């Protein structure tokens, strides 16, 4: 079995006149990602590897997430330009390239790729808020074998549902 953890980056900051690729996280986004990092480090399966789009907001999401929860135990993270605004099939193609020894994989990406990938793998249509974490279990011993509609959505957790996170206080 393979476990995919799929995280949409935290809420970005639109207050600056920057290109999309360079937009940072907002204060609210940083707070949500930190809460998700603390939660996932305590309760969820820990990834062996991480793939992250190379946009500023996804990189900041990775840094805050790993510092908040895993610290020195953070998995290796690969920054990938091809994940920036990748669609569901693009994300799936990259995931299928993972080595077999990685049984739990974290992918940090963008919308609509995140919700599209959940739908592609599980058939579930859903709203995917910023900093939300999905867990999809796949019945294979190899990432290469992943295919459409074979996954089971175990979790979709928006940060607003975390007991330690109140977005209305930001």
Q: Let me know the average pLDDT.
A: 91
CATH superfamily: Phosphoglycerate mutase-like
Number of domains: 1
The level 1 CATH classification is: Alpha Beta
Strand order of the largest sheet: 3-2-4-1-5-6
**Which class do the helix and strand fractions yield?**
alpha/beta
> What's the helix count?
4
The radius of gyration over CA amounts to 15 Å
CATH architectural label: 3-Layer(aba) Sandwich
Cα distance, first to last residue? 39 Å
Question: Main β-sheet: number of strands, strand sense, barrel status?
Answer: 6 strands, mixed
Poorly predicted regions are none
The CATH topology annotation reads as: Rossmann fold
Topology, number of strands: 6
Note the beta-strand portion: 15-25%
- Broad shape: globular
> Could you give the order of the helices and strands?
EHEHEHEHEE
Helix content: 25-40%
Question: Explain this structure to me?
Answer:
- With 170 residues, this protein is α/β, with parallel strands linked by helices.
- The chain has a single domain, classed as Rossmann fold (3-Layer(aba) Sandwich).
- The protein is built from 4 helices and 6 strands.
- A 6-stranded mixed β-sheet has the order 3-2-4-1-5-6, sandwiched between helices.
- Helix 1 packs across helix 2 and helix 3 crosses helix 4.
- The longest helix has 17 residues.
- The mean pLDDT is 91.
Keywords:
6 strands, Rossmann fold, 170 residues, six-stranded mixed β-sheet, globular, 29% helix, 4 helices, alpha/beta
């Amino acid at each position: 079995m393979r476990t995919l953890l799929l995280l949409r980056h935290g809420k970005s900051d639109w207050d600056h006149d920057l290109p999309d690729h360079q937009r940072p996280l907002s204060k609210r986004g940083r707070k949500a990602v930190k809460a998700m990092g603390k939660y996932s480090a305590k309760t969820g399966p820990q990834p062996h590897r991480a793939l992250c789009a190379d946009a500023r907001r996804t990189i900041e999401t990775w840094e805050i997430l790993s510092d908040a929860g895993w610290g020195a135990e953070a998995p290796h993270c690969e920054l990938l330009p091809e994940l920036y605004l990748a669609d569901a099939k693009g994300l799936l193609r990259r995931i299928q390239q993972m080595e077999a020894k990685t049984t739990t994989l974290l992918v940090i990406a963008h919308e609509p790729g995140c919700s599209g990938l959940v739908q592609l793998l599980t058939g579930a249509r859903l709203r995917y808020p910023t900093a939300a974490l999905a867990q999809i279990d796949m019945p294979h011993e190899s990432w290469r074998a992943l295919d459409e509609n074979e996954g089971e959505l175990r979790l979709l957790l928006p940060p607003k549902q975390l007991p330690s996170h109140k977005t209305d206080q930001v």
